[in-house]
Amino acid sequence: MHKVDELASPQKHLPRNLDVTLLELFDSIRRTRNLTAAGEEMSMSQPAVSRALARLREMYGDPLFTRQPRGVAPTPFAEALGPAVVTALASLRLTFHRATFDPTREERTFRVAMTDIGERLFLPQLMEHVAKVAPYVVIDAVTSPSNLEEGLSNGQIDLAVGFFGPLGKQFHQHRLFRERFVYVARKGHPSVKQKLRREQLRDIPHVVGGPQGMEHAAAVQRVLGGSRVKARVVLRVHSFLCVGPIVAKTDLIGVVPSNLAAVVSGHIPLQLLDPPVQFPGFDVAMAWHQRYHSDPASRWMRDVFVELFHSGVNVSA
Fold first, then answer.
1. Are 287 and 164 a contacting pair, CB within 8 Å?
2. CATH of the domain at 271
3. Residue 90: what pLDDT?
């Protein structure tokens, strides 16, 4: 009997007119030992089976099957060829099988880029949910790199969540919610009683937060420094996260995103105040690369964020 590795040299190119249906017919004839039965299985007429078998014989240079009193019998070459054809067809079928993701059973690590505020806002509620529905999923929260597009495109980041400017054509964005800015002041503040007037902003000392280079933070500072406001800024800090604790211990006031203010005010005594001037709002969104757009696991992770945060953050988290 022929050995499988003797059937063809791996250096040879596949025939240009190779039709996968021919291989499926070969496998059907080999299993049924009957041309009529194989034709019925393949929904082919007898003339079509005969023509296809002739092409197979020419392609392999072997009779492949010989007639018997009842049906056909494979030649030794066809017998040896059979397992390789079965394996090849199975591999081809797998290429058309769309992968799935079962969060209740599968392990997966998601690298999610977000700011320190994002970690505070999203991770408590996200991890509570993941623990219930996806016990083998790991969240690796990473700092957004200076070149976010590169991190998303090379696979170092699966998903980014936060405020983004325009991204390239290979990237997708989905808005989770619209964010706005509010003022925070300590409860018992001598000059602030649940309402702020614009003229007060020049007299009450401010703490200004937000990392350098973040457009939404810079927009707040432009408003405060404008001729209509001329706010009195006595402290600048890198992160909005520390504005609440600082305000709670002083007579300073500060401007922070509303979801952060709502979460922080649940733990420290703060007043949340509508601004007497207009600050531009911004979108909190997800961003990902086209290469992961149809990945089932990535789609599941995005769906989780939409489910949990489509209307903002749960302030009780």
1. yes
2. 3.40.190.10
3. 86
